[in-house]
Design a protein that fits this description.
S-adenosyl-L-methionine-dependent methyltransferase that specifically methylates the N(1) position of an adenine present in helix 65 in 25S rRNA. One of its GO terms (cellular component) is nucleolus. It is an enzyme of class 2 (transferase). By secondary structure, this protein is an alpha/beta fold. It folds into two domains: about 20-125, no CATH class; about 130-305, Vaccinia Virus protein VP39 (Rossmann fold, 3-Layer(aba) Sandwich), CATH 3.40.50.150. It has nine helices and seven strands. Helix 2 crosses helix 4 (about 110-120). The protein starts with about 20 loop residues before the first helix and ends in a 31-residue tail after the last strand. Bound molecules: S-adenosylmethionine (SAM). The site of S-adenosylmethionine (SAM) has 22 residues, from helix 4 and strand 2.
């Protein structure tokens, strides 16, 4: 007899601690789309900032992530039930559940409320945005100095940009192209990165791609793998091409399917070598800078499905699989 299969308990992936008691109050406290709260430069003006507690902001983000994951898995079940069984009752049941999840997302304020909650997470009161870490690393690597000396600019793609001006203070040497699924500003291109056309010419490719707290937003392991592989294709084939990745630390430090070291193996196969990292044990967020390298075929098979690397009662199910 084979080993007894055990149900793996799902915990939400978020940079924040889940708090199920305040979900409904989050929906009431967050405003819907309010262009007046965004300044000419795209910053959320403090005077107009919604007054929400840290707890409510965190709760909204966590709850939204959970709903996104439910939505993604219900959509998958719906598609496979329709394709394989054509069982009308089952299809109806999944559709009803999906409608209910989507109603809950709308009640929470949808992507807009999630973005406002995340913007508050970026604010100075909460420790600032991640761009400072990337700028410091590019400075330490001598890339800033090189650009300034050559009067040249790094071509950067910022995936999941809540504000258009995170790199405004570096405009002399960084030419940033911010995109987001739901743009909060005319200077942010509204685009799904997974649908972005690949660069037709080398000069359309990027020197740096920033992917800060976005990979954990992508709800399926296969789409996460696709995102990392597409980032590799959007980068120039030059030694100084980088991916700046920011993730809630538990995604790698407390997952059943990944660890900090196995993630490094996966990235090597996709074609990334670790250049810099910043995180502390028990911390909420980790920062990694990956240099583009040649991808590897050997060992790829291990990453086409999820494999448990460790298990425990309070672990999460964050995973990445390759397309
Ligand atoms: C938590 S926010 C992160 C914002 C910011 N980068 C930061 O570090 O605080 C995640 C953002 O990623 C965006 N996003 C998620 N998937 C995306 C995709 N496939 N293409 C473009 N943007 C995406 C979401 O719309 C959301 O605004």
């Amino acid at each position: 007899m084979g080993p007894k299969s055990r149900r793996i308990k799902k915990l939400p992936i978020s940079s924040f601690t889940p708090d199920t008691n305040v979900h409904s109050s989050a929906a009431q406290s967050l405003p819907s789309s309010d262009s007046k709260s965004i300044s000419r430069h795209g910053r959320v003006r403090s005077a107009n900032r919604p007054v929400v507690s840290r707890k409510i902001t965190q709760s909204t983000i966590t709850h939204f992530h959970t709903l996104l994951k439910k939505q993604s898995s219900l959509k998958q079940s719906l598609a496979s039930t329709i394709e394989n069984q054509r069982n009308d009752e089952r299809v109806q049941a999944i559709q009803t559940e999906l409608d209910s999840v989507e109603r809950e997302m709308t009640a929470l304020g949808g992507l807009n409320a999630y973005q406002i909650a995340s913007t508050l997470g970026q604010s100075k009161e909460r420790g600032g945005d991640s761009s400072k870490v990337l700028v410091r690393w590019l400075d330490e690597l001598g890339i800033k100095q090189e650009m300034v000396a050559q009067s040249s600019k790094l071509r950067m793609l910022e995936i999941g940009a809540l504000m258009p001006d995170n790199y405004a203070s570096c405009s002399k040497w960084i030419d940033n192209h911010p995109i987001d699924l739901h743009s909060q500003h005319p200077d942010i291109l509204e685009q799904d990165f997974l649908q972005r056309p690949l660069p037709a010419r080398e000069q359309d490719a990027f020197d740096v791609v920033s992917c800060s707290l976005v990979l954990n937003f992508v709800s399926s392991p296969a789409d996460r793998g696709k995102m990392l592989s597409l980032i590799h294709k959007q980068l120039k084939d030059l030694p100084n091409s980088f991916l700046f990745l920011v993730l809630p630390l538990p995604c790698l430090a407390n997952s059943r399917y990944l660890s900090l070291s196995t993630f490094q193996d996966l990235m090597r196969i996709i074609g990334f070598t670790l250049e810099r990292e910043q995180w502390k044990p028990g911390g909420k967020v980790g920062y990694w800078l990956w240099r583009k390298s040649a991808g590897e075929l050997e060992g790829r098979d291990r990453w086409v499905r999820k494999t448990v690397v460790k298990d425990g009662p309070k672990m999460n199910n964050f995973a990445v699989v390759l397309p």
